[in-house]
Amino acid sequence: MLRKTCYNPVLIIIMAIALIFSVLLNFQRHSVEQANRTVEMAMEYESIARMAHGEGVPEEKVLKMFKDRGVTSLILFDTTLQKLGDKGKVTVVTGSDLLHAYHTNQIQSGIWHNLIVKGKILTNAAYVTEGSSPLTMQDVEEDLTLRFGKDLVHVISESPKVIEVKGDTKLVEGEAYGEQKGIRQMDLGLSSEELQLAKNLGFMVIARPVNYGHGYNMASAPEREQIDGFFNRLDKSGAKISAFAGSGKTILGYKQNLDYVAENLLKRDITLAMVENIVQLQFVPLEGLVPMAELMDYKGARTYVIDKAEQKKLKVNEAMLRWALTDEERNIRINYVKTFLEPQDGKTLLQTNLDYVEDITKSVEARNFSIGKAGIFAEYMPNRLLFIPIAFGILAAGMLYLTQLIEIKKKHQYLLLLAAGLLFSAVILFAKGLLARQVLALCAATVIPVLSLNYILNIWDNYHGGGKPLTAVLFAATWQLALAIAISLVGASFVGAILGDVRFLMEIDIYKGVKLTFILPILLMFFLCVRRYSLFEGDDDSKNVITRIENVLSRPITLKVVFALIVFAFIAWVFIGRSGHTAGVPVPDIEVKLRLFLEEMMKARPREKEFLVGHPAFYLAAFAVYNKFPRLLSVAFILAATIGQGSLVQTFAHMRTPIIMSYIRAIDGYLLGAAIGICVLIAFAIFYPYLQALQRRYLKHE
Predict the structure, then answer these.
(1) How far is CA 495 from the centre of its chain?
(2) What is the pTM of this model?
(3) Is 455 helix (H, G, I), strand (E, B) or coil?
(4) Pairing with 323, which of 250, 470, 533, 629 sits 20 to 30 Å away (CA)?
(5) CA dist., res. 133 & res. 663, Å (int)
(6) CA-closest candidate to residue 142, choices 191, 184, 182
(7) Element (H or E) spanning 480, and its range?
(8) Highest-scoring range by mean pLDDT, 188-202, 601-615, 625-639, 650-664
(9) How far apart are CA 441 and CA 391, in angstroms?
(10) pLDDT value of residue 258
(11) pLDDT tier at 545, thresholds 50, 70, 90
(12) Cis status, amide bond into 382, omega within 30 of 0
């Protein structure tokens, strides 16, 4: 027997008011997102230089080639004595090597001979003299004094200048874990020569210093003096520093001087580059990164780089397809492009990478992005008062769901809603309110898709005719699916609004209920189905929902049930494991190819849970209910259809994705899901009679 359901109109009015406020906030959010459409194209200077040297082309010429193809910025790291010595910028030699050469009669005169004779050469020290770059020698003297301290760094000769730095001169190969680097491998600072080269060629610079501010030893200069040395060099070079990105495990200034570094970055209009984690969830581990963003009032840019291990497996054309899509869908504003290390498609290594960068630039511009200094979001923090009506609307939806399960007097509905609304409002207004907003978003993302399908069930159950023809079901299911999606989008609007601020747009904060958002709607829908329908013969219609669930759980377990449970457990493992970004369930190659195809063909690739599972199941559910199929089969299709609606709303919880893209994805998912659903239903209608005949024959033999 069916149970009639109805909705409290007052609760619906509260939801409608909340929808108006959510649309207002989402429009504000959209305006903020649309104002941020400039992408910075960045490459590591060292990688380009190595490529130039490897092909025998002048370094400046190769740099100009990359600039002409769209590269706006050079990424510069700290240099080391080892790197500078290998390049010939300075001459670096260890005391032990000098003494060995002297004792084997390889040094018989000159400055080294004189210093050895005077006893000024030590075995546990390195010695630096000028090489091809006087400017680099000045950098080295300054950096060595800051990093290692005046007690360990001395000028032992003025003409020619020889700098002694005491310490471990051993070279640690591969930077083995737990082993301390020798002084020749420790980071010194950015190169003034590289900074000036970038300036002269018209590049911006993204600086990536390590956190040497904490000091390499007890004799090192105070932290602020080291930080000042970093910024003074940037200023002196005259280079345009577009962004600052940390390197290593901690960011410059962590912990005591983050505010000082942030102040200096803001004063120079330098953006904080925040590199996305390889699992596409927040950022690479770098202590102090998020606090730095907060201190800089979120003047940061999300940065994407293809992981080194992953890039080795990719073809150039496969890698190229990622960039523009990533910029569009994940609010990436710095494309950190690493070079391919092997030539492809019969080209030289240089030409391979030049074409790669050019194709990336064209694809980014084709999506209406500008190329230049990375865009940043305005400090978007909506007035918290605007969250209050949305909170009441979400809670009203929760109350609507409860009234479908159990009888609650209207007076009690209003009292419960008022109490919960005031509690959430107080937390949002007078505390940080982050957890409260997360809970509200979870409620909207799980309850409203269920209410959406429940409304469609009312339409289906109110049909009292005989079996509905296939063509009629196809027509009805197509507009009913559109209606279900429209109702579910109310929940999506709530989610996008209640979590809408710059912290979520940059993914400093994230929606943490991803797994629950996939599971809870199915459970909530199951409870409604148990409440609405008599699933088994002999069910007592007078029993409440708890008793009815107990009745389902008390059914005898047969081999069929065990088999069904095993199948269900496998599907759940795949379904849950594939959700989020930390899954251990692999993605088949055919699915990867399907995704790439859809990304090429559609503005926003819809999610498989919608167009391959949920929406086709909606068509099957409509056909099953209209034609009075066995109730358990109908409920199975209804639960599968719930997956599509839940996934649709959950898409909007990915706040890094521009909200307009999420709406487009929902529409694309509907169009593709409807097409697949029609095909699936036609096939099902053809083959189901044969399955019934087979089942009857089996039961007869039984």
Answers:
(1) 18
(2) 0.84
(3) helix
(4) 250
(5) 57
(6) 191
(7) helix 470-498
(8) 188-202
(9) 9
(10) 95
(11) low
(12) no
For tokens 């505010």, what's the residue? 259
Q: What is the largest CA-CA distance in the chain?
A: 111
**Whole-angstrom distance, CA of residue 448 vs CA of residue 453:** 9
Handedness of CA 432, 436, 438, 441 (dihedral sign): negative
Query: How far apart are the C-alpha atoms of 612 and 608, rounded to whole Å?
Result: 5
Residue from 19, 31, 14 nearest 497 by CA: 19
- Omega of the bond prior to 609 within 30 degrees of 0, cis? no
Structure-token pair, residue 403: 């009234």
DSSP E strand stretches across 224-307: 241-244, 271-275, 300-304
**Helix or strand (DSSP H, E) at 632:** helix 631-651
The answer for residues whose C-beta is within 8 angstroms of residue 505's C-beta and 6 or more apart is: 29, 32, 33, 331, 377, 380, 655, 656
519 to 526, 540, 643: CA distances (angstroms): 11, 28, 9
Residue closest to 304 by CA, chosen among 513, 507, 504: 507
- Tell me the C-alpha distance between 165 and 306, whole Å: 38
Q: What is the mean pLDDT of residues 243-264?
A: 93
Tokens of 37: 């459409």
Q: Is 263 left (phi over 0), alpha (psi -120 to 50) or beta?
A: alpha
Q: How many other C-beta atoms can be found within 10 angstroms of the C-beta atom of residue 614? A: 27
DSSP label at 106? S
Q: What is the pLDDT of residues 21-58, one digit of tens each?
A: 999 999 999 999 888 899 999 999 999 999 999 999 99
What are the structure tokens assigned to 224, written together?
């602020």
- The Cα 683–Cα 604 span in angstroms is 28
**Between 557 and 231, where is the model more confident?**
231
Q: What is the pLDDT of residue 179?
A: 54
Taking residue 675's Cβ as centre, other Cβ atoms within 10 Å add up to 14
**pLDDT of 480 higher than 70:** yes
Q: State how far the alpha carbon of 191 is from the alpha carbons of 58, 59, 603, in Å.
A: 19, 16, 43
CA neighbours within 13 Å on the CB side: how many for 144? 29
Q: What is the dihedral of CA 381, 386, 388, 393, to 10 degrees?
A: -120
At residue 179, φ and ψ (nearest 5 deg) are: -90, 140
Euclidean distance between CA atoms 548 and 266, whole angstroms: 63
